[in-house]
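TL;DR need structure tokens for one chain.
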Amino acid sequence: MRRGSWRLRCLVLIGLFVGGCASVTYRYREATYDQRIEKHSVLRGLRFDPALEEQILALDPERIAGKDVREVLARGPAPRIVNLHGGVPLVYLAMASFAEFLIGMGYPEGKVRNPRDGTYSYSPYKNSAEIAGIIAWYYEREGMPLMLIGHSMGGIQTVKVLHELAGDFAERVAVWNPLTEEAEERDSIIDPVTGSEHPVVGLKLGYATAVGSGGLGRLFPNTWNMVGKLRTIPDTVEHFTGFFIGLDFLGGDFFSLVADANTYRPNGSAQVRNVRLPPGYNHVLVPTTAHLAEDQAIRDWINAYVPTDEPELTASFEAPSDNILWAADVWHSVKKQWCLEAQRLIRAKRSLEKAP
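>> reply
TL;DR here they are.
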């Protein structure tokens, strides 16, 4: 942690507050959102240069350089990212900073913002079944499993959504339209890849993660039904990473002093990692990362980062690097899943084109 980190935190809070007072003017909506979804309509609607497809298929998902992002991935399809911010006032601004980090690193802005109002994240108090229904709605129209990123209580909600998709709270979950904020009169979608009807329950995300989720967040009524479920990851996600902060007195179970109490475990095939962040990381400000994308040396270090369960920062930078370990790990997973899903979509498109 740099000596100037406390000054940076004060400046960040002021900047976030001022930015949060500004009205949102961004508007984004895909043309396909208003079109009727039919069997394979998403795959048939994809139009990419065959040379670009070959470049995407040639990428190694575990080793995506900054140049690969700019020149290859950013020109192709990308999964939507749904962010879930924490539960205390104004903490949503920290998640907005993380969204700006993603965009600054090269992720498509339209896949990070909410197309209804331009916001960067959802509240952890939003009904988890609605979020599960939103995930289904997007997947049906965009053809790529979503990524879910949660901070603090938003991390609890992230795991709760995974359990919603697993049918642990209800046998049926309605499709939820994020543009109208209304439930649709159905609980299944047309799978954009297979072309068959698929219930919302049982859908699978590509990547999900939670940071600083537990501790005092367990006291809120909307998290009580997660007792016994928070640290268990169902099969409704392919890759999951759980982050806990050393000596986290807000979001760590037993103040993060007992590692086992903060460890996530799969109850099936989900690939689960657990990462311990240094005690100097601030629970509230962990997602505050927009500044990291502004410095080229930091960007290069983040793009070259190799995940580990107990990361350490061994490099030094002229610019502030607060929260770099969390940001680097999440960005590595985002790039990896982005590449995997783009490759799968291209292969599915090609298989359909070859079908009689």
